[in-house]
Amino acid sequence: MLKSARNGDDGTAMPPERWRNLNPAQIVVIFLVAHVMLELGTHVPSYSPLGITPWNPGAGLGFALVLLLGLAYVPLLVVAPLLADLIVRHTSLPVWVEVVEVLLTSSSYIAALWLLRLPNVGFDPGLRAIRDLLVLVAVAIVATAVVAVTYVAVLRMANLLPASEMVLATMRYWAGEMIGILVVAPAVLILAARVRLPRLGLEGMLQGLSIVLAVGVVVGVGPGYQQQLFYLLFLPMVWIAVRGGLEGISAGLLSLQVGLMAALHLGLGGNVDVDAFQAVMLVLTFSGLAIGILISERERAVRQLRAHEAEMARVGRITGLGSLTSSIAHEINQPLTAIGNYVRVVQRALEASPPAMEAARGAAAKAVAQVDRAAGVVRGLRELLHSGRAEVEPQPVAPIMAEALELLAPEISAAHARLDSNVERGLGLVLADRLQVEQVIVNLVRNGLEAMRELPVAERQVTVSAVSVAGGGAEIRVTDRGPGFPQEIDPVRPQPGRSEKPDGLGLGLALCRSILEAHGSRLAHRREAGVTLLSFRLAAAHGGDTTRGGEASRGGEDDAKAG
Description:
single chain, alpha+beta, Arp2/3 complex 21 kDa subunit ARPC3, Helix Hairpins, Heat Shock Protein 90, five-stranded mixed sheet, 16 helices, disordered N terminus
């Protein structure tokens, strides 16, 4: 029914203090009125004269109230059922039975809610994790079972229910309470956790229409065919759960329950099999909530992964730039300090009377030497970007590629690009630092995605493959359909700090070059037939000589130039 907040734009968790600061008197009045109205909508006199309803949404409303606002509102769990029985059923049961029933059932629910609110349980009323929903379902199953057994036992003690009907009455009552809690409580809790009301778009309206049509068909065919068509109710629920997650299915189940209550209350469909409706609604509730929470968990995990990757990229940039500037500051501080000291010596020597020219010349010469040393430090740090060390060991190529491409999956999806990957069968082990080689693949694929930003979606394709090369080892190739590199950028010999990306630092290709040189390899580049190819080679593990990767790569680079 309602689209989930996939990007967090439609609402975030509501601080509990906001609800606790509401006017308590208004909350009491609203809750009592809502409870009575729900009782009016669910009361089916022909179903049972003993207060056993097909579903009891009032119990779910009570659960949500206490979970949101605290145990101070538990007296309403006693007052509301008594008031509803007085207004709706006109206390059809003896007064002492009515009072005992309400006290016993409300005590069970109060105990369940007290358990859910224990700090050690760690239950989140916002139902943001699978665990929270499972805890709510488990507690509801136990609490409603106790309530059903207690309720029926009191009826039997009062000689209001034959012993032969106790099992059926218990099952009916338990199902009605379970449906009411698991349909209403999650919907209210999720809605209360939002800052703003959700938007109902075209898809939501179509989903609502599908619920109306499904209920109309199932109820309208009459009692003879209802059981055969009950499963039509699953179609809109599955659609809503898959598209809207837990938030959507909660609203969908609530809408479906309201529709069925209205149909039964208006007497549509003749003599409806309420027991069968209960069974279908119970199965729908369990399965819908399960699908919904799994979809929501998946979407939450994807969002967290993307946020983590973005944060890691930002931290990597800051760390890399910070390390570089810190190294420059640390290494250049000493010669700058020496230069300052020698200049001051020159100044004092020239201010002497007579001027100490020999001392001034000596200090000036030493200052010049320190200037040369500072320049050498800068050149050394610049070269550090182009070199490095790698802890190489025998590695299979396929897992390296698979892990790198798994990291890139969200970015590929966001770029609306297609990724093809292929690893040649029988490819042997290579000498590689696994994490560093993965980083090279990630950087090359990212470059390809950036290059294809202006292309039509149908043309955005990146291909990553690994093939064997003569003499052993493997060549990893990354191709894209982008326009290639600008003339001022040499991908084989990149210069740090130069980037065609508006927010780039120009360190990606430089990092690739450093990693590959540490592996005895180089990056090869070729552009032909509208396709950009970047490749590098890794030495075979059996030789143990990483220079083979460099020789193979140089051969690949020569091939690229020849192409």
